[in-house]
Amino acid sequence: MAALYAAKGDVSVAVISKLYPTRSHTGAAQGGVGAALGNIAEDHWEWHMFDTIKGGDYLTDQDAAEVFSKDVIEAVYELEHMGLPFSRTPEGKIAQRKFGGHTREFGKAAVERSCYAKDRTGHMILQTLYQQNVKAGTTFFNEFHVLDLIIENGRCCGVVAYELATGEIHTFQAKSVILASGGYGRIFKITSNALTLSGDLMSIYYRKGLPLEDMEFYQFHPTGLTKLGILITEGVRGEGGILRNKDGERFMERYAPTIKDLAPRDMVSRAIITEIREGRGVGPDKDAIYIDLTHLPKDVIETKLSEITDLSRTYLGLDPVTDLVPIQPTAHYAMGGIPTTIDAECIANDQGDLVEGLYAAGEVACVSLHGANRLGTNSLGDLIVFGRRAGMFASKYAKTADMPDMPEGADLYSRELVARVKDNGGSENAARIRKELQATMMDNVGIFRNGPDMQKQVDILKDLRARYNQVSVSDPSTRYNSELIETLELGFMLDCAEAMTASALNRTESRGAHDREDFHARNDEQWLKHTMAYKGENGEVRIGYKPVALKGYTRAFEPKPRVY
Q1: Is the CATH number 1.10.760.10 carried by domain 412-529?
Q2: Which residues form the active site (predicted)?
């Protein structure tokens, strides 16, 4: 979306992609994109804005939520006009279904707001936008792994990237740069994230002495296929799927009596873990819960949830039409990332100064639309709304700016980084370190957290960092050297884990997806603010803060019925 809108700004646009573009992780998004179209029942952008803020546990920047809730309506219709094959109502309108946390009249009841294309919405968005970029003449550099951002005197001049096919290092000069590289879920053992989501650009930004915002807030999706973490969309519950424990009880009636299984993701994930902890789990290890679709019509399961059905049959040998499917929470989405303005400009410090010519959108960015816990469907909405804004403002800047001068030796850091990894004679193994990182992050900085465990993780990360410096790469090849790339990615993952753990240990309250067993209560007086994490020396992290943008919605907000 960013590239497409930059191209519409009549500038020369190139996309540097770690993967072939249509293999990007957006293709894994299933459930839909939330927009208050009102095609099934009355709906309004104000209700969507309120749900976004409440879902984010009031850490959401409310100016971002307002821009988003208005713009996403137009963006969905725009995708429709581009040819995206949305599912349809009998009248031919874009079909909409219920989704966790989406309500009418400021929380009174669930509402149909998720616009979907069966359970392949992200895949359809990705294909549609790629086709539009081909039409617009966007240049693609596929399978180029970015290693560095070139920032000189507060301005971004371009990037340095490693070409997988040749092993060559390339320097790209640009008037403006947009980062849209996704999240870092591979730091966890059980995750819905693809293997490539290792937080590369977040880490590179962090290594520059620039801040990462709200890294302590990481969303665990309540329903991933047990052991595998493969996502089971919230749309399953939107269509009427029910969570059940080993006794067959619909346990969400006890945790969220009003909207039950359609409660926000943080609530449902904690409820599932509580059921498991209290001995009501299922499966050989009693560490899962069932999702029950057996009461739904077969045609609903086969048509509206066809991808989920295929995944369950393929990976678990279970048929959702007749079988209960075991699920468990899976690391899913980073609410934090590179701090940006609502115009997608990257923020350089606590005072709000900008990195000139640098923009970010999507999961890599933190405009703080999602606050402490992202509302389901708002990830795809975030992409199309703030991707569009990034493209518009980056192209506007590029049309008036001069081409920046490249600093001497702009690629030197990247060449030294690759050489250091390739020529290291140490005895450590990247895969072994990565496995320990993922297991310990899952145990110590997972759904439930406490100070002693997170302090232990800080020490573990320092040890893993020291061991990482002794990793050797046995493959000397230059073409598609996956061992080299995975070792570089491990370094990026360690940075993200370091920033996340320090930020979580520092926040002594529970809010949204950050749930501390030693600080159960929210503390707005002390903690209604954003964390800004800066890389220090020897694994230390410096913490700063940024205020939350408020526009009248607080936890004490008691809405009056609106008359339309």
Answers
A1: no
A2: 265
